[in-house]
Automatic annotation (TrEMBL):
GO molecular function: DNA binding
PROSITE patterns, per the entry: HMG_BOX_2
Example of a GO cellular component annotation carried by this entry: nucleus
Compositional bias segments (type: Basic residues): 65-75
DNA-binding region: 1-62
Ranges of biased composition (kind: Basic and acidic residues): 82-104
Entry protein name: 8014_t:CDS:1
Disordered as annotated region, ranges: 65-104
Protein keywords: DNA-binding, Nucleus
Length: 104
């Protein structure tokens, strides 16, 4: 059961077949960005056809989107509890955000 590709991936796959060994990701992205909407239409239609065929072949398919633990706890990974406590205290006693936030 292969999930359908979006239009850019369909284009990328065909471009790599036409230019084996020469197609870099940067080159493919620039080529896609320089194409007109009319040129892209062919790939959008192919993508939609693949999507419809997938839906017909797999009517009970439901995509599961899960967040990884690493991504979920990212904000806590880089900060030690002491550092977080200092920032909270700093926010309480002054109405200014910490220096880290002021620079942004």
């Amino acid at each position: 059961m292969k999930k359908p590709m979006n239009a850019f991936f369909v284009f990328s796959k065909s471009y790599r077949k036409e230019n084996p060994g020469k197609a870099t990701p940067e080159e493919i992205g620039l080529k896609w960005g320089s194409m007109s909407a009319r040129d892209r239409e062919r790939y959008v239609e192919d993508s939609n056809r693949m999507k419809n065929q997938f839906i017909l072949e797999n009517p009970d398919f439901k995509e599961k989107r899960t967040r990884s633990v690493r991504r979920k706890n990212r904000k806590f990974m880089n900060n030690s509890p002491e550092k977080m406590r200092e920032e909270l205290l700093f926010k309480e006693y002054t109405n200014k955000p910490p220096k880290k936030m002021q620079e942004k």
